[in-house]
Task: structure prediction
Amino acid sequence: MSGTPAHVPHVYVHVPFCAQKCPYCDFNSHAGREREAGGYVEALLAEARALAEGCEPRTVFVGGGTPTHLEPPLLARMLGGLATTLGQARLEELTVEANPGSLTREKVDVLAATGVTRVSLGAQSFAAATLGRLGRWHQPEDTRRSVDLLRAGGIRRISVDLILAVPGQSLEEQAADVDQALAL
Result:
């Protein structure tokens, strides 16, 4: 366990799989490689076991990519394995990133069952034209539906990510996006 300090307060876990690669995304993320997800999750959990002794973080953020692009059994395996490996004694927040089009009732049930306390929802905009310019595949109503699914599933802490100042987006459109996010 050399090199890993005890009681690391915050841990980021990266899941590089997505339904599609958004043109603005500079993160290590890949579409069309779902067949590799099982091996990736097993390698991730093996690395966590090798490095986690004494870690006991206060926060864990699972981002990507789109962690909720994983199928429910694999999502449950990853989140449950991380919770067990990293320990939950000091854990105050377990956040998972999601795209509005990637959430289902079954995936929300997995999030709640594995102790997820916050979902960071990548809405980016509530305007279909802006979503199109960003290369996003979800529709504005998918964000509202996802928030409803999360709340119904017991996830109370939800952040809604927006991208502002998209080329062609007016200040009024930006304000409308912020207003809609706040209204949720």
Summary: The beta strands are 10-15, 17-18, 30-31, 59-64, 93-98, 118-124, 157-162. The chain is about 40% helix and 20% strand. The helical segments are 37-51, 72-86, 105-113, 128-134, 140-152, 171-183.
